[in-house]
From TrEMBL:
It comes from the Bacteria. This is DUF4838 domain-containing protein. Residues 1-27 form the signal peptide. It comes from Paenibacillus oceani. GO terms for molecular function: hydrolase activity, acting on glycosyl bonds. Keywords: Hydrolase, Signal. InterPro entries: CenC_carb-bd, DUF4838, Galactose-bd-like_sf, Hex-like_dom2. One of its GO terms (biological process) is carbohydrate metabolic process. The keyword Ribonucleoprotein does not apply. Pfam families: CBM_4_9, DUF4838.
Length: 921
């Protein structure tokens, strides 16, 4: 497969590059180190006889004693021999494991005799004389060493919270020399709903305990977790509570009183944590919202690279320094997220600030340093120049659409990203988000595979990704592994071939979830289930991986059935049994996505009977790649909106919102749309008429943030109760600076309608802007004048031209104050609000006086003028010369028209030819 070759090549490059960074990383004290010397084979047990006892010191704490007990228990299960734990400081009789510090190790110069700093999590596994010692410089390090030994040396694999592979080795032998292990990443969290099973995470050497997990006390022996990332995110308003200091969604970042209050509050919060025996840290982070900054913050941003991260970081750094004067070891955490992700220039951060980089809008199906993610990936080096206390927040799941259940093929992207981050010593931690919280499902799709592979790479990013995936699949899916492996490769390949992006709201209709891919996946899972039929536990694991495939097929069954019929492909979609299987596997789940995630809502959505929607008239003659249909199951629904059966809708179903609602109840996130190109949007909308008058408002729609202003539709336009294709009066283009961006629909407050229905939204690719008939060579149907141009006093000239044989000419007209030729209304050029453009034209000017100029008129949705932009004027008595006009499309601009004018003072003719328009980066 293409994916495997790509990853293999990437690993070789990363391994080579890692040597360049190794010495720097070691100097930072955060190198990942995996050093093994010696090859002494030790027989631990043979045919029920124990050869090594397990010892732990009487003075060891609960964590070390718990780890020692687990060592004895698992060795017993693997070998069948009765390993017992001895808690004693006495000298063992015969060969023994020494877990942690122990007096018996003194005579063999053990006790962690090493040159490298192990940190909180590192450890040594070493043998000397009759002893094998597993020891870390902390209790958690010793615990990690035991878990590492059981996994890598003995073969115990904790694949999931509910399934552990225990090898059967009556003759248990291992090779132990001198093995030093230091993790590459200081903080390692794979955030998934695992039932808050800390033991599972500890077994896999993960040390993060954030978000809802902090609310559950640790069991005995599991109470020492990394506090590297300060607790608390999105809390500006919670720490500075007076709304007078709130501004544009965030804080008055440059205000002295804001900083004083924030520092005072943080000192109090951190003091409370210390009184409760917790670490002296706390988060100080932006709200989870956009920011319209106050003038002082905007000015500071403009002076430091133009990014709004500048005033935020200046405030956070200042506050952190103030807190540190009162609590010297205090640490403050903050986010670089959405508007604050681009790094500022000309700033530094105090050492006690930990920055979590969270590029939520990157393509999560590609590596951070891969094509399409250049903007986000390049920020890592820029942030590393500001701070060496960085954590990376990776988004590994879908929040909308099919949510956590939707197939999300980003295994290789996640692995590539971790390996890329490992090359920057400034990045100390990684948080891989696979759920929104404890309400997410447990053990579905790729969750457990991602968690297991991610955990291995966070310890040692040089591991072979393909080998890790293969090891997990073989161990977890057993007899069904070949079919499951083929499915995993197929859906990753489909993502790559389709060119689709993975976002946090990837739609169910995304092209990587195509008919061919889902048909192949369904067949592979039939094979997998047949292979697992004799093992109920294995069959359950296979079916939980299959949930995502069932979800897509159930949603799109009408479409898939039609395609199968057209191609004469036999595919029994078996909807009744498939839906029953889906419900039986998901009935105990609390939520399948962040918003509107109740399973009852999903079941209702799946039970709606649909037909295959016809191709919209507006795209009948367009190739498939030039248009996209987004059905109601891709919408975000609020305020009581729901998908209902509707025989008038294209597929017999639509999103419905009560006409009494005043909420933006039906929404479509911008991440459902492609990141490349420009797109015209059309919404298919109808209403249940009420008692409104013709001119009363029926509903409104708009883009959030409001660029341009919302648009209203009157009752008279839709009072027939039928669906209408409503053209959105703008061109959509992906804007990486807008993390929150969506289309919304809202009933008008007039009460004119009973219900509002939105069936589907169709996006049509807008071609790059181009002037029509730019060389004036084509005659208009009504001639004789150039097609698409209005010649108000101008002349179509066939005797003079810059290119071709034609141009347009303006003759002197002293009586005409505005002598002009311009683009006709039917050929206006669509533009994107906020986009910069350049219009170019070649002018020949035989006039010695007056002004001859090229210009642009911006036009709004009502065909009204917004503004004009003009070149200062062509040189008098000049031959063909290029002139340009540069402008930025206004927020309400929809079209532009190109103008060519001369004033009353000109005394000779002027010609225009070969005009063009293009976007300016």
């Amino acid at each position: 497969m293409v994916t495997r070759r790509k990853i293999a090549a990437g690993i070789l490059m990363l391994v080579a590059a890692s040597f360049l960074f190794y010495s720097l990383a070691l100097a930072e004290g955060n190198a990942w180190l995996n050093k093994t010397n010696g090859n002494g084979k030790k027989v631990l047990a043979h045919n029920g006889n124990v050869m090594y006892s397990v010892y732990v010191s009487e003075s060891a704490d609960a964590i070390v004693k718990h780890a020692a007990q687990e060592l004895a228990d698992y060795l017993t299960q693997v070998s069948g021999a009765p390993f017992d734990l001895t808690i004693s400081d006495g000298t063992p009789i015969g060969p023994a494991f020494l877990v942690g510090q122990h007096p018996a190790a003194d005579s063999f110069a053990l006790q962690g005799n090493h040159a490298e700093p192990l940190g909180e999590d590192g450890f040594i596994i070493q043998s000397a004389g009759p002893y094998i010692q597993i020891i870390g410089s902390s209790s958690r390090g010793t615990m990690n060493g035991v878990n590492y030994f059981l996994d890598r040396y003995v073969g115990v694999k904790w694949f999931s919270p509910t399934y552990t592979f225990i090898p059967d080795k009556p003759k248990l032998k291992v090779s132990v020399g001198y093995d030093v292990q230091i993790p590459r990443f200081q903080y390692r969290e794979m955030f998934v709903n695992d039932g808050n099973n800390e033991q599972f995470r500890a077994h896999n050497l993960l040390n993060g305990k954030s978000h809802y997990r902090t609310q559950t006390p640790s069991a005995a022996g599991l109470n020492s977790w990394s506090d590297y990332v300060p607790t608390g995110v999105h809390n500006f308003h919670a720490l500075v509570t007076d709304s007078v200091y709130h501004s544009g969604g965030q804080l008055l970042a440059m205000d002295e009183e804001v900083r004083r209050i924030a520092a005072q509050t943080l000192v109090s919060r951190i003091g409370q944590r210390q009184a409760n025996g917790l670490d002296p840290s706390y988060g100080f982070s932006q709200q989870d919202a956009a920011w319209v900054p106050d003038p002082a913050s905007r000015s500071f941003a403009d002076a430091h690279g133009g990014t709004l991260a500048a005033p935020i970081l200046d405030m956070v750094g200042d506050v952190a320094s103030r807190v540190q004067t009162q609590i010297p070891d205090a640490r403050i955490g903050t986010l670089a997220y959405q508007f604050s992700y681009p790094a500022p220039t000309g700033l530094t951060l105090p050492d006690n600030v930990v920055v979590t980089l969270a590029p939520i809008d990157k393509d999560h199906g590609k590596s951070l340093d891969g094509a399409g993610n250049e903007r986000d990936g390049q920020q890592i080096a820029k942030w590393a120049a500001l701070s060496d206390q960085l954590v990376f927040w990776d988004y590994l799941t879908n929040f909308s659409g099919g949510g956590y259940l939707q197939p999300y093929p980003n295994l290789y992207a996640m692995a590539d990203t971790i390996q890329f981050l490992a090359l920057s010593p400034a990045v100390k931690g990684y948080f891989g988000q696979q759920t929104g919280g404890a309400r997410g499902p447990v053990g579905v799709g790729f969750d457990e595979l991602r968690t297991w592979v991610g955990a291995r790479l966070l310890w040692n990013p040089d591991e072979d990704v393909n080998a890790l995936i293969e090891e997990f699949i073989n161990g977890y899916y057993g007899a069904a592994s070949s079919s499951v492996s083929e499915y995993i490769e197929a859906i990753h390949q489909s993502l790559e071939d389709s060119g689709a992006s993975l976002t946090t709201s990837t739609p169910i209709s995304s092209p990587y979830l195509s008919f061919d891919t889902m048909h192949q996946a369904d067949g592979l899972f039939e094979q997998a289930e047949a292979a697992a039929a004799g093992d109920p536990a294995l069959l359950d694991r296979v079916r939980r991986m299959r949930i995502g495939v069932d979800l897509i097929i159930l949603h799109r069954r009408a479409e898939f059935a039609q395609v199968a019929g057209e191609r004469n492909i036999v595919w029994n979609l078996d909807t009744t049994n498939r839906l029953q299987r889906f419900k039986s596997l998901t009935q105990n789940m609390q939520s399948f996505r962040i918003e509107n995630g109740e399973l009852a809502q999903l079941y209702q959505l799946l039970e709606v009977e649909r037909s295959s929607s016809p191709i919209p008239d507006i795209v009948q003659n367009l190739p498939d790649e030039d248009w996209i249909e987004l059905q109601d199951y891709d919408f975000r629904l609020h305020a009581g909106a729901a998908v209902v059966q509707d025989v008038k809708a294209s597929d017999q179903a639509a999103a419905r919102l009560s006409g009494s609602s005043t909420a933006w109840g039906i929404q479509m996130n911008h991440t459902n749309l492609p990141r490349e190109g420009r797109w015209k949007l059309y919404a298919y909308v109808r209403v249940d008429p009420g008692s409104g008058s013709s001119g009363a408002g029926a509903f409104r729609f708009g883009l959030y943030p409001s660029q341009p202003a919302p648009v209203g539709v009157t009752f008279g336009e839709v009072s027939d109760g039928e669906y209408h294709a409503i053209e959105m009066p703008w061109v959509y283009k992906f804007n990486p600076e807008l993390s929150v961006h969506y289309l919304w629909f809202q009933p008008a407050a007039s009460g004119a309608i009973h219900n509002l229905y939105v069936d589907r939204i169709v996006a049509v690719r807008e071609k790059p802007p181009a002037a029509y008939n730019p060389g004036f060579e084509t005659i208009a149907p009504g001639g004789p004048y150039p097609d698409g141009w209005q010649t108000a006093g101008g002349v179509w000239d066939s005797g003079t031209a810059h290119g071709g044989s034609r141009s347009i000419r303006l003759n002197p007209e002293p009586a005409n104050a505005f002598h002009v030729i311009y683009t006709g209304a039917t050929k206006w050029i669509p533009v994107v609000p906020g986009q910069k453009y350049q219009v170019k034209g070649w002018i020949k000017n035989n006039s010695t006086n007056g002004n001859v100029s090229l210009g642009v008129r911006q036009i709004n949705a009502s065909n009204g003028s917004i503004s004009y932009s003009w070149h200062p004027g062509a040189l008098p008595s000049s031959d063909w010369t290029p002139y340009t006009v540069t402008f930025t499309a206004a927020p309400t601009a929809r079209y532009v028209s190109i103008y060519f004018k001369s004033d009353q003072q000109t005394d000779g003719p002027a010609w225009l030819d070969d005009v063009s328009i293009e976007e300016v980066p």
